[in-house]
Each structure stands twice: as C-alpha cells, then as structure tokens.
C-alpha cells in the first residue's frame, strides 16, 4: 500500500521548497502539481488562449501534453516534449496559473495523472487542493501558510535574484489578490482540509518546517504499517 502526503497552502508559503526536502528525507517521490499547472498556463499564454471562452480553452487543452520525469531526483516538466522547467516561474505565468487553474477543464486534465501516480508510489504532493480534492484519502495532510508580508518578501528576493524589476508593494498586492481568487473560486477553492495539520512558517526556518513534517510522516507511517 502506498503512503501519500498532501501539502496545501497559499502562494509563497514555501510549499515547493519544503516538499522537495521532506520528500528527499523520506525517500518519497515529490510531485510538484503547481509546476504542472504552470506548464499548462505557459501553453495557454503561448497560444494566446481566451480562457473565458470554453470552446477555445477546450481546443487549446486538446493540443497540450504535460509530462513528468525525474532526473537526479528532481522533477522536470515537459510541454509537448519540451522541457519547460526553467520557463514557468515568471509573474506572467504565475498570474495565468492562478486564473486558469480555476477552470474545471484544466483541473480534469491533470487530476487522473496525479491520482494514478499516488496509487502506485509513496508520494508527497503539494498544491492548492491536494488534501481536499486530489488525494482526500492521503494519510497525512499539511496546510502550510505564512503571513502575506512574509510571503511577499520571499517572492521579492526570488525575483530580484533572477534580475526581474519589481517592488515589494506590488508583489504583496498581487499575493493578496491571488489569495482571494484561490480561496473564492467555484472549482476546488483553496481551504484547509478538516484533518490537515496547520503549520505557519512565518517565524520558522525551512529546516524546522521540514523536520516537523518528517516527524509527523514517520509517526503516521509507523501507526499505519503496524
């Protein structure tokens, strides 16, 4: 029987960084669902798709194939055979991801792939609705969050390090708007699962958060496999 860990939370909470490290510590497969949604968003941007036009969106999605591979233990995402892992972290893609991921057609395209992988392997999967929608039977669910200011500062440092011109105030406003969209969308809104463990990372180091998740996972696994 596979063991699944679901980590949900808002943008900028550190989900991907922490999930990768925790998965490595546990020897689990890390599934970055956000990267998968970003890959679709990139394709929609490239095709200049009007995502409010259901027919146009369906036609565009029919031309998109998202693939996953693991190279040296790191997930790589492919768009129609092209490795786009280094192209999906821009603000433009982030904004399209927030808007397009609310569309039922987009979510349906990726759900089956994610669930099939979780049935076969011990996975740690992070996103917005993993514990509530994608893997509701996950043996461990985490809701990872942080204050808006903390998340904005993290994003600012990341973008500045990539040479992008931005201001902390703009990023903070964007995160607040994205939080609202993600938590109020009709399809799979961002919310904490009733049985999820809440972890606020605002005043914690990455190692402290990872340690907490690994500790919880080992305790649940010991209990489940006794």
Task: Summarize the structure in short.
The chain is an alpha/beta fold. It is 51% helix and 17% strand. It has helices at 15-26, 33-46, 54-61, 91-100, 104-120, 130-134, 148-161, 168-184, 206-224; strands at residues 4-8, 29-32, 66-71, 74-79, 82-83, 123-127, 140-145, 197-200.
Tell me the layout of helices and strands.
Elements: E1 4-8, H1 15-26, E2 29-32, H2 33-46, H3 54-61, E3 66-71, E4 74-79, E5 82-83, H4 91-100, H5 104-120, E6 123-127, H6 130-134, E7 140-145, H7 148-161, H8 168-184, E8 197-200, H9 206-224
Helix pairs in contact: 1-9, 2-4, 2-5, 7-8
Main traits of this protein?
five-stranded parallel β-sheet; Rossmann fold; alpha/beta
Describe this structure as you would to a colleague.
With 226 residues, this protein is an alpha/beta fold. It has a domain of 152 residues: Rossmann fold. Helices cover 51% and strands 17% of the residues. It has nine helices and eight strands. It has a five-stranded parallel beta sheet, with helices on both faces. It has a three-stranded antiparallel beta sheet with strand order 3-4-5. Strand 4 and strand 5 form a beta hairpin. The radius of gyration is 17 Å and the shape is globular.
* Largest beta sheet: strand ordering: 2-6-1-7-8
CATH class of the domain at 4-32 and 90-101 and 111-221: Alpha Beta
Structural class: alpha/beta
For this structure, the CATH topology of the domain at 4-32 and 90-101 and 111-221 is Rossmann fold
Please describe the biggest sheet, giving its number of strands, its sense, and whether it closes into a barrel: 5 strands, parallel
Elements, N to C (H/E): EHEHHEEEHHEHEHHEH
Question: How many DSSP E strands?
Answer: 8
Number of helices: 9
> Which homologous superfamily in CATH is the superfamily of the domain at 4-32 and 90-101 and 111-221?
P-loop containing nucleotide triphosphate hydrolases
Integer-rounded radius of gyration:
17 Å
Distance between the termini: 13 Å
Shape designation: globular
CATH architecture call of the domain at 4-32 and 90-101 and 111-221? 3-Layer(aba) Sandwich
Strand proportion, as a percent range, falls in: 15-25%
* Unreliable segments of 5+ consecutive residues: none
Helix content: 40-55%
State mean pLDDT (0 to 100 scale).
91
């Amino acid at each position: 029987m596979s063991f699944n860990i679901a980590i949900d939370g808002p943008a900028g909470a550190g989900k991907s960084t922490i999930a990768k490290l925790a998965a490595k510590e546990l020897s689990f497969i890390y599934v970055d669902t956000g990267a998968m949604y970003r890959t679709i968003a990139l394709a929609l941007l490239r095709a200049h798709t009007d995502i409010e036009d259901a027919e146009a969106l369906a036609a565009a999605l029919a031309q998109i194939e998202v693939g996953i591979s693991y190279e040296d233990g790191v997930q790589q995402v492919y768009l129609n055979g092209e490795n786009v892992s280094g192209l999906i972290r821009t603000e433009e893609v982030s904004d399209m991801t927030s808007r397009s991921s609310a569309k039922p057609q987009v979510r349906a395209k990726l759900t089956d792939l994610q669930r099939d992988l979780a049935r076969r392997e011990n996975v740690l999967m992070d996103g917005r609705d993993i514990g509530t929608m994608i893997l509701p039977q996950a043996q461990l669910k985490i809701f990872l969050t942080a204050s808006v200011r903390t998340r904005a500062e993290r994003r600012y440092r990341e973008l500045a390090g990539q040479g992008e011109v931005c201001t902390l105030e703009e990023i903070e406003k964007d995160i607040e708007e994205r939080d609202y969209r993600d938590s109020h969308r009709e399809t799979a809104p961002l919310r904490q699962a009733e049985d999820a463990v809440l972890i606020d990372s605002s005043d914690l180091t990455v190692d402290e958060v990872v340690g907490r998740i690994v500790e919880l996972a080992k305790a649940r696994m010991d209990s489940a496999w006794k």
